[in-house]
């Protein structure tokens, strides 16, 4: 070595992710960090668990008729367990269904009929227009359908300017959704849903998002759904289960 030259450390490029003997030595001495564990086993474990849960819950959301169609495909005890579960759900809904109509509110009774009532059940208030309003008329029609269908939810109605002095028709229909004494959601007009073309399904989705309705609620099934459509869905569930098993 030239005595006139200072010692200069050599810079060597190292890829810490490479599996080499040299990298093992560097890791041992703490010069480069330990290589993180491969995520593959964790991913495979998560996929296996997801398939297991999907298989165990394959009958969730199916009504009594659909369960009956699966008698030749499923274990009798397993089916009976879900039949009892569906019967209990239907019984619970029937017990809670005490409203079943649209309640026309008076302003002096608002606190009792809405705020206080929401401590025991979901309460939906519809503020309607004083004059002709297409969206308001559509909302009134939907309110009647919803009240008959979901008797455990209280559907109320009052003209906007009778509830709030000077409330403009352009803000109607307004939907106020109460639970536990508080407003959980407010919609001014049906713009957030589907305007004058708002459907029963649009409002049901809103109630599901708020957890006022559960995804598996048997009342959400369309009564006009064709029988062969129902069979197709059941067959598709079986196919999905079989495809999942190919990964095991």
From TrEMBL:
Residues 218-231 have a biased composition (Basic and acidic residues). It holds the Pfam family Phosducin. GO terms for biological process: actin cytoskeleton organization; cellular response to pheromone; negative regulation of protein folding; positive regulation of transcription by RNA polymerase II; protein folding; regulation of cell cycle. CDD domains: Phd_like_VIAF. Residues 218-248 are annotated as: Disordered. It comes from the Eukaryota. One of its GO terms (molecular function) is actin binding. Transmembrane segments: none annotated. Gene3D superfamilies: Glutaredoxin (3.40.30.10). Residues 71-208 form the Phosducin domain. Belongs to the phosducin family. This is Phosducin domain-containing protein. It comes from Macrophomina phaseolina (strain MS6).
């Amino acid at each position: 070595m030239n005595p006139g030259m200072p010692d200069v450390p050599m810079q060597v490029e190292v890829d810490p992710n490479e599996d080499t003997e040299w990298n093992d030595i560097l890791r041992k001495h703490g010069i480069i960090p330990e290589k993180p564990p491969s995520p593959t086993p964790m991913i495979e474990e998560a996929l296996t668990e997801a398939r297991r849960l999907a298989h165990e819950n394959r009958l969730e959301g199916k009504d009594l008729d659909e369960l009956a169609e699966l008698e030749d495909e499923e274990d009798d005890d397993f089916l009976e367990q879900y039949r009892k579960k569906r019967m209990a759900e239907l019984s619970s809904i029937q017990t809670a269904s005490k409203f079943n109509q649209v309640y026309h509110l008076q302003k002096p009774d608002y606190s009792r009929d809405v705020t206080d009532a929401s401590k025991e059940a979901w309460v939906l208030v519809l503020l309607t227009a004083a004059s002709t309003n297409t969206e308001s008329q559509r909302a009134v029609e939907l309110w009647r359908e919803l009240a008959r269908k979901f008797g455990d939810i209280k559907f109320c109605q009052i003209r906007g300017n009778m509830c709030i002095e000077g409330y403009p028709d352009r803000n109607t229909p307004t939907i106020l959704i109460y639970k536990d004494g508080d407003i959980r959601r407010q919609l001014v007009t049906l713009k957030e849903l589907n305007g004058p073309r708002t459907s029963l399904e649009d409002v049901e989705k809103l109630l599901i998002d708020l957890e006022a309705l559960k995804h598996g609620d048997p009342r959400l099934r369309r009564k006009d759904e064709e029988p062969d459509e129902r069979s197709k869905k059941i067959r598709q569930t079986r196919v999905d289960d079989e495809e999942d098993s190919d990964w095991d």
